[in-house]
Design a protein that fits this description.
Helices cover 49% and strands 19% of the residues. By secondary structure, it is of the alpha+beta class. A seven-stranded mixed sheet has the order 16-28-27-26-17-24-25, with helices on both faces. Strands 1, 2, 3, 4, 5 and 6 form a six-stranded mixed sheet that branches.
């Protein structure tokens, strides 16, 4: 397909996107963009050449992105570029030495894949000459007349010279790729006198490659379209010069940017003036706009629907949430799914087997029957044409890329094709409570001092300890203090320490105070039946109780209530309809966990769990159900998230940690995206099986037809490229919205 770049048929341009390569395991890493590398045959040609090079330690291919990652211990990438040049792929080092593609460059391959005017003209000449040769041969009945041969030669040279050149390169490197097989078929047809068919085959092959390339670009551009949602310019505050239109890539952190109603937000930031509603569907998949005012975060690619707003930039264009999403999806495409690995391995044995069959068909029948060799040689040539496994191998990456891009558009960031395939297998989901089932923004509902303690002082000490913790319950206590005693300073806390799953402790005025759950109080030996009698009714109401104790003396009891997310109950019902068991794992007490569980329809709600207890619960679930997912915040629940087959991070929008640690990141806080992910996974698996079956069935049918003499060379070309086009179009169906 390199005959359709802007340089005509001058060969493929491989562009390293890494000038100062990243270092991985002591080896440097460079990424090459290769225009015509979208079939396993090209991959095999490159692999056979580069794996033999001293200093090259590893190769990773992404055929959908036409991307080759080379790990090496060479002083420069020039030898690698020279090796690619020897394969007909001229390598050019880009001036940009960043280790990741800048925004706007993600669709660079598609932009460079335009067809030059000269290439169009040559293709038209080839088509006209091929049709002329066929018509003249049919009219005269002579397929080997000088006029027919002349037209056929014109068709082959004008439309297939690039294919013949690449076929010769493949032959020199002993690589059985499509260009070699097609060249052999065309030359063989000419040798046995089938000149019109040789001409038509090379023309149809060239046209089919163009159609296939355009279809594949739809899958490739699905990811590029994500980045295209971010505008190229921003209206920035230039001080005395007023407001100035500036390229978004040049805007620095801290700059004030203005967004008009109806315009897209160019960068991540915090609103500093104005209020509006923002359509965050491009990032989170949310159906309803979200109100934004001073202090609220906004994200690049979202749409300002109503009022004019100004915001302070918090991340450059490369560091925006949208850019990180695109980077994550691109990286995920390079991770082969299980089905893809199986198909790739199958293809390694498939081509040699078919080629061997073609050789046997060409040689054995004439020898055994003493018959004419011409018809059997023709059948062998047809077998060579249908031997290319492009349709079979493209059947998986196109589907995976479409699934990843479709999920990203819905605010579901899947970190690899393996997780996209595994989602359909989930039989149980473990949910953290705070921030997952609930909003994670609890509020203090009760503040009761114990006998002999004074409310103001004990509340001050509790708020001082809580201010040192980032737990949502601690935040609620701090907020309650601010509402009760606005502006009053907190007390200095010394020797502060967080007690995982229990609470916190610290020194205030020389006294060691503990603030935490009833379980912590019991471990300190401060609990008795009277305290438990006070706590129990509050916990039955779904409230979390926090106690402040001094040594063995309880000082203050605070009750904190969290609000269930409005979408949680629907998500639980959707999961149940899919046959998925839902379990809630909470660090809060068992009474609170059960109360929250009943509100949302979770029968198995477990409370009083430390991080290691949650890990043990996930292990037990795996033993019972097989495939288990865990939903948490990506940090506190890390052991359980890591142990689960698929770890889901809630509210990952704008959070680097969640994007990096989770297998699947939900860009907003909507649990309904988990059943949607499972449905998407099932749909992806179905399409994968359809594509593999379709590709193999077409190959099998034409194999039988070829052996019976019913298939022609041009029919074989249509069969091969037609199958590729069918699996690509079928895989692109995942880009449509998944419905229940």
């Amino acid at each position: 397909m390199d005959c359709f770049n802007n340089n005509g048929c001058s060969g493929t341009t491989a562009t390293p996107s890494v000038g100062s390569p990243a270092v991985v395991d002591g080896a440097e890493q460079a990424v090459f963009l290769i225009q015509n590398m979208d079939c396993p045959t090209e991959e095999r040609l490159i692999r056979d050449r580069l794996e033999k090079m001293p200093g090259v330690t590893g190769l990773q291919f992404n055929l959908m992105l036409r991307e080759l990652t080379v790990r090496h211990r060479l002083p420069a990438v020039a030898p690698i570029a020279e090796a690619l040049t020897s394969l007909g792929m001229e390598a050019v080092v880009k001036a940009d030495t960043s280790s990741s593609a800048a925004p706007g460059q993600v669709s660079e391959l598609a932009q460079d894949a335009g067809i030059s005017g000269r290439a169009w003209a040559m293709l038209c000449v080839s088509g006209a000459a091929a049709v002329g040769a066929e018509m003249l041969a049919w009219y005269t009945g002579h397929e080997q007349s000088w006029a027919v041969v002349a037209l056929a030669v014109i068709a082959i040279l004008s439309g297939g010279l690039g294919t013949l050149k690449k076929g010769w390169i493949a032959l020199r490197h002993l690589s059985l790729n499509m260009n070699f097989l097609m060249s052999l078929a065309v030359i063989g047809a000419a040798v046995i006198g089938q000149w019109p068919e040789a001409a038509m085959v090379i023309f149809l092959f060239t046209v089919a490659e163009l159609i296939e390339a355009k279809s594949l670009d739809s899958a490739r551009n699905a990811v590029g379209a994500l980045m295209a949602m971010s505008p190229d310019t921003a209206l920035v505050n230039a001080g005395a010069d007023g407001w100035r239109e500036t390229p978004a890539s040049e805007v620095q952190v801290g700059t004030i940017v203005r967004v008009a109603p109806g315009a897209r937000v160019p960068l991540d930031g915090i609103v500093t003036a104005g209020q509006s509603t923002i359509n965050q569907a491009p990032i989170t998949g949310e159906s309803l706009p979200v109100a934004k005012a001073t202090g609220d975060a906004i994200y690049a690619g979202t749409i300002n629907e109503r009022g004019e707003i100004e915001f302070r930039v918090t991340a450059t264009q490369k560091g925006s949430t949208l850019s990180r999403i695109v980077d994550s999806v691109q990286q995920a495409q390079g991770e082969r799914a299980p089905t893809q690995r199986f198909v790739d391995q199958f293809a390694r044995y498939y081509i040699p087997a078919v080629v061997l069959l073609a050789v046997l068909v060409a040689i054995l029948p004439p020898l055994l029957t003493q018959g004419a060799a011409g018809p059997w040689l023709y059948k062998a040539l047809v077998l060579l044409v249908i031997a290319c496994p492009c349709a079979l191998v493209l059947s998986t990456p196109v589907t995976v890329v479409s699934g990843l891009a479709a999920a990203a558009r819905r605010g579901i960031l899947i970190k690899g094709g393996a997780y996209l395939e595994q989602g359909r297998l989930l039989r149980a989901i473990a949910l953290d409570k705070t921030g997952t089932v609930t909003l994670g923004k609890p509020a203090v509902t009760d503040a009761v001092p114990f006998a002999g303690a004074e409310l103001h002082t004990t509340l001050l000490h509790a708020a001082s300890l809580a201010a040192r913790s980032d737990h949502p319950v601690s935040g609620a206590i701090s907020a309650y203090w601010e509402s009760q005693m606005p502006g009053e300073a907190l007390t200095e806390v010394g020797a502060f320490r967080a007690l995982d799953g229990l609470g916190v402790r610290g020194l205030i005025d020389g006294r060691e105070l503990h603030l935490g759950s009833l379980r912590l109080v019991k471990e300190l030996g401060c609990s008795d039946q009277a305290i438990e009698a006070l706590v129990e009714p509050l916990e039955r109401d779904g409230k979390s109780v926090v106690l402040l104790v001094d040594g063995s003396t309880p000082l203050l009891m605070l009750a904190v209530a969290d609000t269930v997310r409005p979408t949680t109950a629907q998500a639980i019902a959707d999961l149940a309809a899919l046959g998925v068991e839902v379990v809630m794992l909470s660090g809060d007490n068992a009474h609170t966990a059960r109360a929250i569980g009943l509100q949302v329809g979770i029968n198995d709600a477990r409370g009083g769990l430390l991080p290691e207890d949650k890990l043990g619960a996930v292990v037990d679930l795996i033993a019972t159900f097989g495939h288990v997912g865990m939903v948490g915040d990506g940090v506190n629940d890390a052991p359980a998230l890591a142990k689960a087959d698929i770890g889901f991070a809630m509210g990952a929008m704008g959070t680097d940690t969640a994007l990096e640690t989770a297998d699947v990141a939900l860009m907003d806080d909507d649990l309904r995206k988990i059943p949607e992910f499972i449905r998407l996974s099932g749909k992806a698996r179905a399409i994968l099986m359809q594509n593999i079956g379709l590709a193999l069935a077409i190959k099998a049918v034409f194999l039988v037809m070829a052996l019976h003499g019913e298939a022609t060379l041009w029919m074989a070309v249509f069969a091969d490229m037609g199958a590729s086009l069918l699996v690509v179009m079928n895989g692109l169906r995942l880009l449509r919205r998944i419905r229940n």
